[in-house]
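Forwarding the complex inputs:
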Amino acid sequence: MMNKRMSKPILDVSGLTMDFGGIRALDHLDFDVQATEIVALIGPNGAGKTTLFNCLTGIYQPTDGEIRLACPKTGQQTRLNGLKPNKITEKGMARTFQNIRLFSQMTVLENVMIGRHCRTHSLILGAILRNRKTREEEQETIHKSYEILEKVGLAGQVDELAGNLSYGAQRRLEIARALATEPFLLLLDEPAAGMNPQETVELVTLIRQIRDEGHAILLIEHDMKLVMTLSDRVVVMDYGEKIAEGTPEQIRTNREVIKAYLGEDGE
Amino acid sequence: MMMTVKEIKKSLLVSLWFVFLTFPIMVIKVNPIERTVTWRWSNVLYVAVGSFVISLLAKAWLVRKARAAGRQQAACQARASILQELLHRPGYRYPLIIMFSGLALAFPHLFSTYQANIMTTALMYIVLGLGLNIVVGVAGLLDLGYVAFYAIGAYSYALLNLNFHLGFWAALPIGGLLAALFGLLLGFPVLRLRGDYLAIVTLGFGEIIRLVLENWNAFSKGPSGISNIPRPGFFGLEMSLDHAMIYMYYLMIGLVLLTVFVVNRLQHSRLGRAWLALREDEIACQAMGIDKTRIKLTAFALGAFWAGLVGVIFAAKTTFVNPASFTFLESAIILAIVVLGGMGSIVGVICSALILTLLPEYLRALSEYRMLAFGAILVAMMIFKPEGLIAAVRRTYRFHERKSVAALQDDE
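Prediction (whole assembly, two chains):
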């Protein structure tokens, strides 16, 4: 099963288990993500995909198993279990949310500037005195945020309140905000949900562009066309277990996957 | 037309409901001595007509507002209030500021010392409001025990003076810092709490501080309080009571200016943005790499700091402190200032602090009804302007200094 073991993976998940009371949402899950790879995570509703994201990003504490993140530049490996969400973001993994969680009363630019928070340092005294260093940092934050917004195509709406954006634009803003934290691994939770075909095409271009700039991407998606065209590798989950893994072609013909999606008599 | 018929029906229902509600107090009048009951049926008519008209007016107003909001949505622009608009227009900005500061400076000389005294109290509430605004308005942490920090400031001056003969100017920063420290102490246990639960715990904290001060006689002299606290000195100058009051007034003007300056800068900084993000969505905030713990604690500490400063000034102004000055009602009034002014809006908080402290003073003619009027105003505000008197407007950023960014990149 394990193909393409080119180098040390940047994300290595082994034996990940998550119990909610008596319910096992994730059951000994193993998978990895290589640098600058697009991995899609698919599975029927309730398979545990979003739970997995929440475990990876520290919102849930997994019951058992190991999550390791390795920076592709330094090769330094960190165990993510037990770290707070903000620490994990600092280590270089950022995410978007399935049910959009923008700061809707803040402007588009401010949303992205929030993403820069963990890469900037000015504190109370800097804020009050507004010395040269703080001013320069602030300008740099604005500048970088603006660049990211240009990349996702929202540069014309920087002063708009985030809550007033269209649905597709809000999804792109979520990606922009995550990119502002300078991640090397980006987790996208159903980025194309609710988008029209035109927006989806633009999204595919955007995700490819982000990958080409050196970010690895792990995405949850229900749009099979998008998954098949975009991803290098697909991981299929059902009832908290990994039931298949491989290239899009391998997954398309995998009997287990067809069974999970269509039922026992899916032949 | 359909709408209006529906509206009239609704208003009729409202007036019937009010007649029913006010029936026992407005219609029945019992005279226990003569053992008679008077039925004042004419009042039914007044109540019915009155509530019907008010309800219709309110509905018309809301409909108009909804239409205006719809239009605004189309324009898609955050709207600034007239005052903010004026403050941001360079042609008006400086004349307005000069006018206000001229008025503020001349105030004690134009009016009596009594007026200056009331104004000093109002200024104190401005600073308290701005301090709580950091916690509640900007960071979105509902704090119902804010008065505790005010008490800590006041008592730290009173006790330091009583036991160590510390002067006002030495006690002022100590009071502020002590309050900030207690802000941190309160912050730690409530880090995981939000909304209602946070409100309950902070309410409890406020009561704990008050009860400790009331019952720990050896420490704080209990309910009888501490008296003979010296007024602030001015290089050892002897001052008459009138002059001391006027001095106090100018001192507060200075503190208000300092607070506005600092709070404004904090709000428009990296830290201020993080507070806003925390208010909007805690989980997204953490996922964006913001250390929730740190941000919450700084909000609590920085909010409490101002209450501590004002506490010291309060003790110096009244020359007497006792626990009765620090009841929940104080917290509620300060919270009302923040909510009424508009969450996170500095101009709004200043306006509402002035209204809420000066109105009851000048409404003394209404004496018994003033708290009733006060309540009615608050309820009306929440219905008609839930975003506050002057809602905070999101700042728009410009990167005018492309050059400086380029220079920065060269430096690196």
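The longest helix of chain A spans residues 132-152.
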